[in-house]
Fold each of these.
Amino acid sequence: MTGSRVSSVAVAGVVAGLYAAISLALYPLSFGVYQVRAAEALSVVPFLSAAAVPGLFIGCIVANIFGGMGWLDIVIGSLITLIAAGTTRWIYHWPLGPWRKWLAPAPAVLFNAIGVSVYLAPIIGVDYWFAVQMIGIGQFLSCYVIGMPLLLLLEKRRTVLFN
């Protein structure tokens, strides 16, 4: 393996492990319609490293296996995380200059609020739009309030952490 490939595997592994560990350590906050899944703060990391995309996906699968919401959350919830992470990486390549980083948390907020609510609202027994609002608020708190400062901090150390 080349150094770059080893580094990518390491980044993916660290992101996956952190995502699963944070989600499960904060279990009561990480699952259900009233969730603030703090691990979603890591959804900004694909903006800095493509290796974080599979890391978030794997970490989400592991967390959702133990989350207790069933196979829909394991499969669809994890796929939504993969799509959001891939979109965040895609935003990195947009020609918006330094302002594009402020869009980095948006895919995780929007895709999770809209997509996860489709299957979680009936499981929990709440209205779809209520679930969108509650998950959206939780995602905003995780991705912008925690994730954006994390992105700004990691961006300053990018050459050490991701190259």
Amino acid sequence: MRVCVPHAAPPHRVPRGVKPSLAALLELRRYGAAMRKALALDEPPRAAGRVRAARSHGMEYAESRPYSPGDDVRRFDWRVTARTGRAHTKVFRLEHGNDLHCLIDQRRSMHFGTRAAFKSVVAAELAALAGWAAAAGGDRFGATLAGAREAAIPMGSAEASVAALCSAICTPSRSNASDPDAPLDALATRALREAAEGTRFLVVSDFADAEPSFARAVKLLRTQGPLVLLWVIDPLEERLPPPGRYPLTDGRAHLMLDTSTQAVRAAHGREFAERRERLDRLAREPGTRCMIVRTGEDLFSALARSSGGLRLQ
């Protein structure tokens, strides 16, 4: 008799809203294993620059954490369970294994969206998912949060670090709204201070920086380890709506987007084409992967679509 085991439904997640929710970011923990697969964190990196070649395949104990449904029962920590009265499981990581550092862009240009969520909310969920992906594999995790809520999350146990990142993302900003945003290369320099050689870097941004800043940032990060660029865009950035006047607001200020003139439409098209071309070029280089996620779409479908490199459809 053949026993049919149903396949698990593919994960589905569409970010929504204009502000990230701490509860939602923490709840994404259950997608950690799926995100790990989507980012190919267990695959050997393609050669790039000074990426560390020798990596141990041994396993070492990292910590014990509360048991969650789906955890490997063979890693049940009986001692901690007996001491605390609550089920715990052991977490192991590769000796000298893959550290993952996420640079998450929450600067002004990210606070925009016409489909379901702001780009900043999509980026927040992608960064949290990356942290939970590191936790699922017992890797260490750190993060650099850019924007009004600047924060540096030191490299450490992924479980603790991603929780700290989620909290930092959702903490109200106290900075002056008129302060200029730091350029991407300056943010990359900050991220490098927290990372050892061989660290995998993941940058979540709309990459709206000028070419020199963008190029320097990529060069800096790629000299340390493999690099993944998650490009977050809104469909309006790809294609302007039909000629007309469209009101826009951030809840306080109001402005009018006038797409009726050919000059405006042409300038917008050129700027977006330049961003697309430079990311597409990077997607073909060793040690770098580029993936695209649009506001209003399922995160896992988007990552699966562009898993082989940047694909604009």
